[in-house]
Design a protein that fits this description.
Layout lengths: L5 H8 L4 H13 L16 E3 L2 E3 L3 E3 L10 H5 L5 E7 L12 E4 L4 E4 L8 H8 L7 E6 L8 H12 L5 E5 L14 H22 L5 E5 L5 H13 L4 E4 L20 E4 L3 H15 L5 E4 L5 H10 L3 E4 L1 H6 L2 H16 L5 H4 L4
Parallel strand pairs: 3-4, 3-13, 4-7, 7-8, 8-9, 9-10, 10-12, 12-13
Antiparallel strand pairs: 1-2, 5-6, 6-11
Helix pairs in contact: 5-6, 6-7, 7-8, 8-9, 9-11
């Protein structure tokens, strides 16, 4: 019988303030206190996406390991891939505490962290210490007080390029003033052109072209979605991550922290993020690989994302409430659902809704 350690220690961890608990969890991973998962090969879950081979479709979203400190331990938890960051060129402390709030009754989190991180130099130094094999991405963005966002993205991309398997350009956090404006058509086109040029330069130097993805918000108008897809197709980007946290607040939130400023993640985000995912897949006619993020807390929800158009999925907030054994449960559940539906591989299920 497999022991789910989190069922024992989770309630104790959640007695701590949210950000303190997160820091403790990351420290425990780094120290090797968290046992590695019993790894299982899932042939039907293996897939190819933007030139990379994934052992399963379940990834860790950016935000958990901002400075790439615990990647080896995280990969040993059974993820198909792990995304580190968000990292900015220069270190920054983020917004004042408290800035992270658990909404226990809602199985949600609100954060206004503000890209607190040690900067790209420390980030790369940590990446260079990796020993565990596995797919790792770097989530990059601009410094809060930067006057040249394009320069910041290009600087970070150049720094991390040799040390990760893919790069995500974060243009959708609600906690950096003006960041989401980069999703507007003209600004996005200019950014994609500049970032693409820098990637091509790095590919020429290294002899290896690495995929660059863009992470978008769930709070988009119909026209925004059309514009993003149009620009993405025009610039031949490798993929989109759909979605970041939301600034909206569903009326049925129960926790006392429900009106805190920041991005809402977890269960209440699932419907909105999945609708956005479905729309982007439909508008793009499946021509852009998508990673579905937002509110996944079960195999059923992961499968819904995949059928709505996601080739891969990511989660984070559900781990706060269920621990790392959730990864195994999702993967095993996906295998069973594919068998139930007579689908031979996870790739065949993408966009089948």
């Amino acid at each position: 019988m497999r022991m789910d350690y989190y069922s024992l220690i989770g309630p104790l961890i959640r007695l701590l303030p949210a950000e303190t608990a997160h820091e403790a969890a990351l420290r425990a991973l780094k120290l090797g206190v968290v046992p590695a998962a019993l790894t299982t090969a899932y042939p039907t879950l293996q897939s190819e996406c933007f030139g990379l081979s994934f052992k399963n479709p379940v990834g860790l979203a950016a935000g958990f390991d901002k400075n790439a400190e615990g990647l080896d331990a995280l990969l040993l938890q059974g993820f198909g891939f792990v995304e580190a960051g968000t990292v900015t060129p220069l270190p920054q402390s983020g917004n004042p505490r408290p800035r992270m709030f658990r909404l226990n009754e809602d199985q949600a989190v609100i954060n206004r962290l503000g890209f607190n991180n040690q900067g790209v130099h420390a980030f790369v130094s940590n990446l260079q210490k990796r020993k565990q094999a596995g797919i790792v991405g770097a989530n990059i963005s601009k410094n809060k007080d930067s006057l040249d966002a394009v320069y910041d993205y290009a600087t970070s991309l150049e720094a991390v390029y040799a040390h990760v398997d893919y790069i995500t350009v974060n243009i959708s956090s609600p906690n950096t003033v003006g960041l989401r404006d980069l999703q507007q058509k003209q600004a996005l086109s200019a950014l994609m052109q500049a970032v693409g040029k820098k990637r091509d330069e790095m590919a020429g130097k290294s002899g290896k072209r690495k995929p660059v993805l863009y992470k978008i918000a769930p709070d988009l108008t119909a026209q925004d979605k059309e514009d993003i897809v149009e620009v993405a197709l025009a610039h031949h980007i490798d993929g989109l991550i759909v979605t970041n946290t939301t600034i909206t607040r569903p009326s049925n939130l129960q926790n006392i922290h429900r009106n805190e400023r920041g991005g809402l993640s977890g269960k209440p985000l699932f419907v909105l993020s999945t609708e956005t995912l479905r729309d982007i897949y439909r508008i793009s006619q499946g021509k852009i690989p998508l990673i579905g993020v937002g509110g996944i807390a079960s195999a059923e929800e992961a499968y819904l994302k995949i059928k709505a158009g996601a080739s891969l999925v990511q989660l984070y907030t559900a781990l706060v409430y269920q621990g790392f054994d959730l990864i195994r449960r999702i993967n095993e559940g996906l295998v069973q659902m594919l068998e139930r539906d007579g689908v031979k591989s996870i790739a065949e299920a993408v966009g089948k809704e």
